[in-house]
Amino acid sequence: MNNGPLLFLGIFASVATSFWMLLFAPQVQIGRQQASVIELTGERYPAVRSGAASQGAEVYRSLGCVECHSQQVRQTGANFELWLAEPGTNRPVLAATLVRLNLASAVEADKLLEKAPVKLRSALGSIEARMLAAQLTNDDAKAEAVLATLGPDIQRGWGKRLTVTQDYLGDYPVQIGNLRVGPDLANYGARSPGAGVILAHLYAPQKTMPGSMMPPYRFLFTTRRINQGEKPTLPLDVAPGYDVVPSPEAESLAAYLGSLRAETPLPEAPVPAPPTKAAPATNAPAATPAP
Amino acid sequence: MTKPNQPSSQRGKAGKPSPVPATRPASGSADSEPSVQRNPVPPLLVLLLAGVMYWGSMYVIEFGGEADARVHYPYPSYKYIEGLVPPKGDAAAIAKGQAVYAQICMGCHQADGNGATAQNAPPLAGSEWVLAKDPARIIRIVLHGLSGPIKVKDKDWGAGQMVAWKDALDNEQIASVLTYVRNSWGNKAPVVNAEFVKTVREETKDHPGYMTVADLEKVTLKE
Amino acid sequence: MSIPSSTSASTPAEPAKVTGAEIDASCRWPLLLLFATAALWLAGSALFSLLVAIKLHKADILADCPWLTLGRLRPAVNNAFLYGFATPVAMGITLWLLCRLGRVKLAFQWPMLIVCKLWNIGVFVGIWAILAGGSTGFEWLEMPRYASGILFVAFVLFGLCAVGTFSMRRAGELYPSQWFLLGAIFWMAWSYSAANYLLVFEPVRGTFQSVINAWFTGNLINLWLAPVALAAIYYFLPLQIGQPLYSRELAAFAFWTTLFLGSFAGLSSLVGAPVPRWIGSAGTAGYLCLLAPLIANAMNWHLTSKGNCSAWKHDLVLRFLATGAVAYLALGLLNLVLSVSRVSAVTSLTYAVVAKNYLAWYGFVAMVLLGCVYAIVPRLTQVAWPSEKLIRVHFTCSALGAALIVLALLAGGVIQGFNLANPSVAFLDVVRKTIPFIGISTLGILLFLIGQVVFLLHLGQVLRACLQPFAQAICAECCGAPLKAGGKS
User: Fold this and answer.
1) pLDDT of residue B45
2) Closest C-alpha to C71, from A146, A171, A219, B218
3) Measured by CB atoms within 10 angstroms of the end CB, which terminus of chain C is less buried, N or C?
């Protein structure tokens, strides 16, 4: 412990250990990820941002929005729900099965079948849900065990699933944030009320969300005079005769916020897909058949 | 130079000496450095270190998602995530497909998938037709049969005929037997879905008679 | 208190012994410049930190100036503290300790003056850039590449000076502080360059950026500022109370375990984040393992100061250091608790994380570094601190302020976390319920600011007294007027 070079070697060894285990290993795992192709739609994920949205990402970084907003949806777990997708033709038997399996009382069973697709039971394990679904499924009737993602973020409507490394491949810098003074924005585009409302919120957050701590970004807008009868640009109460016009930065920021999405089902992050009412058959001509 | 550690000017009230700032070391000498004794590290502390390193390792092993890059909190392992999605039934389909193959296709295309010149049955193992990512062409062959010469693995297969199976086999069976063929004998190709077979069946329902290679080549394969 | 010597025979070429006063005199100007500019950055950072807190209460204040918007002000404040105050003072303390423990004068005065100037230019340019909108977006690395490049060059120059000073030491046993200081220098140089390279110069893809960012923020505290602070405590504690350090072996144990296990700890901020799960778990394991050096340090300090437990009452340097030491222990435990995934599920992404940072910065690092400044400056300037009262005021304001900030934000963060975890609480209600805690922490920031302003003024008095004779001498040379009577000669 008195030898300078030996001391240096020890320090270097600690640096090397940290490098190999904490920088090299993650680089091998996630640093070389590529955008993937979604099997179902054939589209590239994550999608390339439009020009306005990528400029908006720069505005987001420059204004330091990451200080108050996170961009990561978290999940606390997952379980299954039992859904009845199609009631089928043999309703009395199905109703009896429902009663037998304790999924509905004798009185409600028939009404429940009318409401299909309908959720029958939640908070089930995967095996239990699948067994019940198999028991309710026959030629006509169809029941499914549907995944349910759990967590306060999900229940607040901030996303349908947790965000994973794949979601951030198109971002530079990746701004997952570490403080939620404001709501999470990872999936904001999916619940966005439209560019106009976003811009109004940027201009006067205390008016659109009373109690918000968000500072008003009035410097991203200019006020100009308008004639009587001209419609204002933003859904805002401004003094009559005046109009608030967003600058290109504000518009690109709104475009970026509207482009934030993290709902696509991925192999490592499945999304709940409850059955929906089947669309009625149309008479549209089929695509040109191949020989 | 004033002596060290003495106030340079009298800043206190008149007659009252400045307070000696309480920042001097106890020894008072400007030359002293701290000294250090030698006392061994208590064995309990070493035990503690071993304990926390062990506990830490166990923690990472248990809650580390098996160091799989695809596993994120809160999922415990990739197998668990796979269990959340309804099984695509690859293994089940392949098993089912093997049964269909044994019953129907083995007679001509042989158990090892190498085909037989005597039966005019080209090989399936390593066949570029089978291995194409898009199964659109081979579904058509199974549904409507094949007539006429076909080149498989750089070899021409003569004017034999393959029977159409669209009436004998349903979509599930065709999908499963093609999945089996595409994943056996060294073949590796994506599974075939029953929905896709259904689509192709409807697209080609008006096709008269057998397929030919000319017909098949009109079908563009998706990447 | 004699200096232990390990060689019994002296070689004929052995250099003359250097006195402590000579060592201090050789360090004078670079260190004073470092400390003075750092004190300015500290006061500035505290002032704008107060502005940030006020903005959280009333978002409208100064909102029309894009330079002072909240998202730019907060990173500017953080960078001003870390790179404007903490790192320069740490650099100064490192040099001084290496000189004293090596019994060698500082041979690199001009390079160190250049380091100080370069460093301040870099910090100034960096903070200007952040406020102008050029932030990189990475936590504690917001300075753009032109500023971080300047800082890195300055740090490497400092590192060379420090290692050079170390290699010029007189033969003898190494004192534990020297190990910590060398480790800290290498780790900071490595972390800063690697993080900046992989995030800004040749960016990596996806959330690997977050991994590197978390690794860096952990290293900045655990492997740069903390080891320097620990080195300072290891030096000053035995010195101020006049007792030898209890155990060299315990210090070695703490050193090696910190060095090898410390870099994992930073990853614990990624528990629950969109990165592979093993990374967050490795972070938790890191803080768990850091319990060992924590206990080793605590034991060493406790057994050293046995019988002198009330020394901090009259020794103000010790008061700062002891507060810092207690904060270090609290920080280690808090970090461990916050990294457990069940707790993190509630506390991450809340003010509890901010509280943890403030405990590290204000509670631990600032207190220890300020205590060292109080000990070192009189030796450099040969001028005593004029007013003990001002030191006490500084201490009380800083300690009380830091305690208020940390406790208020911790409580507020936990409550915020529980509310966030309850989906039936509307988000605006979650925000509303944090306001009282932010209010208390604002009071804390105000107290802390008052303390730092007091310190700045006090330091100014000392510097003026120190510089006066030199200024007078220069004046005398220029004008040919005789020296004022009664002044220092």
Assistant:
1) 94
2) A219
3) C
